[in-house]
Amino acid sequence: MTETKETATRTIRMEVARYRPGEDDEPVFQGYDVPLMPDWAVLDGLNHIKDQLDGSLSYRWSCRMGVCGSCGMTVNGEPRLTCGTFLTEYGEGPIRIEPLKGFPVIRDLVVDIDGFLAKLSSTRPWLVREGEELPLTTEYAQTPEQLDAYKQYSMCINCLLCYSACPVYVLDPDFLGPAAIALAQRYNLDSRDMGDRFDVLNQEDAVWGCTFVGECTRVCPKHVDPAEAIQRYKLTAALRSVLPWSRR
Amino acid sequence: MTGAYRPPRDNLWFARTRHCAFFVLRELTSVFVAWTIVFLLMFVDAVRTGSLQEFGALAGRPWMIAINVLALAATVLHTITFLNLAPKATVVRLDGWRVPAWMIQGGNHSAWVVLSVLIAYFILRSP
Ligand code: SF4
Ligand code: FES
Questions:
Q1: Residues with Cβ within 8 Å of residue B70, at least 6 apart in sequence
Q2: Of A98, A107, A181, B117, whose CA is between 20 and 30 Å from B90?
Q3: Measured between alpha carbons, how far apart are the two ends of chain A, in Å?
Q4: What ranges make up the beta strands (E) of B23-117?
Q5: Minimum distance, in Å, between the CA of residue B109 and any CA atom of chain A
């Protein structure tokens, strides 16, 4: 009990990247001291700054439980979900909070993800059905094994930590990238899907751009394993090129 | 988007994390894999043209031995990491059950050892 009280009165330094368009030419760090509470995540620290110290700080968040994927930032150089990263992980501090690397910064910790959204929709991340009239009335039952085939990839929350960790993406922003490919595989491997994403995925800027660094998988908070999704599709694409009848 | 800040390209990305540095080291081992193939072709050529003695003299030079020891270490690292990564590309399902990565890796390494022993047997057996 005494220990909890003591911890509560201690503070930790958060060095937060600020970028105010029109005012700053490049991001600058601003330091804030926040209470070092044992149950506070980095996001709680940011909320404390916004509520108590500096209302002009901008950042994204929503669910506070690792579900919405909007609170991804660079914490001490690593892409992390700030709602799942605790202040106590950083000892005495300081903790450096920067926007996700590899994306244009709109303001402070808010990045522009339009590029990703365009890439994602190019993979048609939905169930594609052919030769059916709307409205659909049939049920499409799946066995647990059929569900298992793609379930891991369906856990993606679009947090973009994998993009931020991927050196290929950071050097070449046109690279289709880990999450978009993992989500394409989520539908490719779904027994109900009839779509064909070969033309989008079998590209130099898509699966063949990946050099298999594996950082995407290491940082993914939902264990999606995008590196696996990409390598699997490389094999699919290669087989399909030599055996035209093999589809997936 | 107007006014957005675009960070400059990070040319030192490979030095930022231990994992990335190891990745680049592993990629560099490809140079030694290529050298091993060149060396093997030189050996085949020596057998073909009957110049094994000269080849043996060249291969026995200290600097050549040093290069080849380094090449062996690099090739072994490349092979082990390559075989360990294989389950990422080949997800095997048997009647719905996903074969765990360690089994695929174990199979790869066992096949590697068996092949190496076979090759060593044919090369090293006395004539
Ligand atoms: S694959 Fe993982 S790291 Fe990438 S966006 Fe999805 S949940 Fe985030
Ligand atoms: S706030 Fe939703 S994932 Fe962190």
A1: B32
A2: B117
A3: 58
A4: 93-94, 97-98
A5: 20
d(CA A85, CA B98): 32
C-alpha–C-alpha distance, residues A170 and A164, integer Å: 7
ipTM reported for the complex, 2 dp: 0.78
Nearest chain B Cα distance for residue A193, angstroms: 18
User: By CA distance, what is B20's nearest residue in A?
Assistant: A213
Beta carbons of B4 and A104 less than 8 Å apart = yes
CA distance A124 to A201: 11
| Tens-binned pLDDT, residue by residue, of chain B (127 aa) | 458 999 988 888 888 888 899 999 999 999 999 999 999 999 999 999 999 999 999 999 999 999 999 999 999 999 999 999 888 888 888 777 888 989 999 999 999 999 999 999 998 987 6
Q: What is the pTM of this model?
A: 0.88
